[in-house]
Amino acid sequence: MVYVVVGIAGMLGALLRYYVGVLLPTASFFGFPLGTLVVNFVGSFLLGWFATWSARPSFPLWLKTGIATGLIGSFTTFSTFSVDFLQLVQHHAWKMAFLYVFLSMFGGLLCSWSGFRVAKQTTRKEAL
């Protein structure tokens, strides 16, 4: 059952990822890979939030795996981040390349932390 859920959720995450890429094409932002950055920020926030929110023992493991690994995992994309960075370097866009790495790393961590905090606050309110 979990394989089916991960597969279906993965398909949905990949389609969402593609749609964001269509909405935010790299060419529109002077070669800066904004679509990948947005996807990874949103995915980091969602995974941080979801991992915290779904940590209760009663949450079904198959659903947690489907959403975290399937949906969010296929939505975010480290491989595209890596290729985008290398393409910027190949075009000698050094400042943009390192800005992209900095924003991706620290922005992703900040988004994950924000998702974690939002889930903690939501969970506390639900417990009251």
Write a brief structural summary.
It contains 5 helices and no strands. By secondary structure, it is mostly helical.
Helices and strands in order:
Elements (H helix, E strand, L loop, with lengths): L1 H22 L10 H20 L7 H15 L2 H13 L3 H34 L1
Helix pairs in contact: 1-2, 1-3, 2-3, 2-5, 4-5
Feature tags:
128 residues, single chain, globular, 81% helix, 0% strand, mainly alpha
Q: What do you see in this structure?
A:
- Fluoride-specific ion channel. Important for reducing fluoride concentration in the cell, thus reducing its toxicity.
- Na(+) binds at residues 73, 76.
- InterPro entries: FluC (IPR003691).
- The chain crosses the membrane at residues 27-49, 61-81, 93-116.
- GO terms for molecular function: fluoride channel activity; metal ion binding.
- With 128 residues, this protein is mostly helical.
- The protein has one domain.
- It contains 5 helices and no strands.
- It has helices at 2-23, 34-53, 61-75, 78-90, 94-127.
- Helix 1 packs parallel to helix 3 (61-75) and helix 2 (34-53) packs antiparallel against helix 3 (61-75).
- The longest helix is centred in the last third of the chain and has 34 residues, at 94-127.
- The protein is globular and about 50 Å long.
- It starts with a helix and ends with a helix.
- The relative contact order is 0.18.
